[in-house]
Design brief:
The protein has one domain (10-176): Cyclic Phosphodiesterase, Chain: A. The protein is 25% helix and 35% strand. It has helices at 23-33, 59-72, 101-111, 136-145; strands at 10-18, 45-55, 76-85, 92-99, 127-132, 150-155, 157-163, 169-176. A four-stranded antiparallel sheet has the order 2-1-7-8, with helices on one face. Strands 5-4-3-6 form a four-stranded antiparallel sheet, with helices on both faces.
């Protein structure tokens, strides 16, 4: 083996609830209008597991873990409504998860266990980012654009993404929610 070549290459994965059309296109357009530099590489979503480096060899174990998580939880309804922000802590404007919050929290906790366990840097707060690290005026405009935004849709699963060499998030595997447990609508 030559120097500088890792015997255990790392990949970066994330687990998200992908947003259906037309929500996907609407929020992607808002992110582009805000001038968000990640608009082209990060599809609209609600995060369950933020970018996480894992060993490429651990990928089958991670996929098995995610399949077991999906088997425990039933599909649910998500309601996105109105703007929110993490300012001044983080320069982010997002659309709020108004319903489906409990389901997201329970699924996130299950995803972030086993081979994906890690200490969370912030408390989990499900949301769909619309502007991140853009000038204050763009954050304000994105916030204003979300006033009155209101959409409800069913969530039937979650997706594992992998970040490619160019920094673009590529969907790798869809996991269907298949449980009978009632996680509620809040």
């Amino acid at each position: 083996m030559s120097r500088g070549v890792s015997a255990d290459p790392q990949i970066t994965v994330g687990v998200v609830i992908a947003l259906p059309e037309p929500v996907h296109s609407e929020l992607a357009a808002m992110r582009h209008r805000a001038g968000d530099p990640q608009a082209a590489s990060v599809p609209p979503h609600v995060t369950l597991l933020p970018p996480t480096a894992i060993s490429a060899a651990a990928l089958p174990e991670v996929e098995e873990h995610l399949a077991r998580v999906a088997e425990k939880f039933p599909p649910f309804w998500m309601h996105l409504s109105g703007p929110g922000t993490f300012r001044p802590v983080s320069q982010v404007v997002f659309v709020q998860v108004a319903a489906g919050l409990s389901a997201c929290e329970q699924i996130e906790a299950a995803v972030r266990s086993g081979p994906l366990w890690s200490e969370a840097p912030f408390p989990y707060h499900p949301h769909a980012t619309v502007a991140h690290d853009v000038p204050a005026a763009a954050l304000d405009a994105a916030y204003d654009a979300l006033r009155g935004y209101d959409v409800t849709f069913p969530v039937a699963g979650f997706t594992m993404f992998e970040q490619d060499a160019a920094g673009v998030w590529q969907p790798q595997r869809q996991f269907t929610l298949d449980g009978a447990q009632d996680v509620g609508h809040t």
